Amino acid sequence: MRRFLLAAGSLALLTTSLGTTEAATRKVSVPNRYDGAWSIEVITQDGPCDRAYRYGVRIAKGEASYPGGDFDIRGRVSGNGSVRATIMRGSDGATVVGQLDRGGYGSGTWSSNGMIRCSGRWNAEKRG
């Protein structure tokens, strides 16, 4: 469960919800400048979750996916790089917020919302 919470935080980093104005004017199928492979480092700062993990996440057309497929990801990376998402696995989950930049880096925070409460920060680097 601890590993899930951290993974959820890192994966959620790459998924975000578009603002209503942007969503109304932009087709979801349009490629996103943040599309590609990302390496995500998740660090726990509070709670009993494992200290740190690194995950590979793929963004395509603004939507994030995790090759392991063990998580339900809800959200998107907006056109300006803002990140807001929820990752779920069963009844456990995490909420992630942050920002990706055009230079291929990003950062933000995450917090679990399941039975085990943890929170921390994440860092991202685009790999391809």
Order of helical and strand elements: HHEEEEEEEE
Taking all residues together, what is the mean pLDDT? 78
Full CATH superfamily name: Quinohemoprotein amine dehydrogenase alpha subunit, domain 2
| CATH top level assignment | Mainly Beta
Proportion of residues in β-strands: over 45%
Silhouette: globular
**What structural category arises from helix and sheet content?**
mainly beta
Overall number of strands: 8
* SS summary, helix count: 2
What name does the CATH topology carry?
A: Lipocalin
Keywords: Plasmid, Signal
Signal peptide: 1-23
Protein name: Large exoprotein involved in heme utilization or adhesion
How does this model look, in words?
Residues 1-23 form the signal peptide. The chain is mainly beta. It has a single domain (2-126), classed as Quinohemoprotein amine dehydrogenase alpha subunit, domain 2 (Lipocalin, Beta Barrel), CATH 2.40.128.120. It contains 2 helices and 8 strands, in the order ααββββββββ. It has helices spanning 2-13, 20-25; strands at residues 36-46, 52-60, 63-65, 72-77, 82-89, 92-100, 105-112, 119-126. Strands 3-2-1-8-7-6-5-4 form an 8-stranded antiparallel sheet, covered by helices on one side. A hairpin with a 2-residue loop joins strand 2 and strand 3 (63-65). The longest helix is centred in the N-terminal third of the chain and has 12 residues, at 2-13. The N and C termini lie far apart (30 Å).
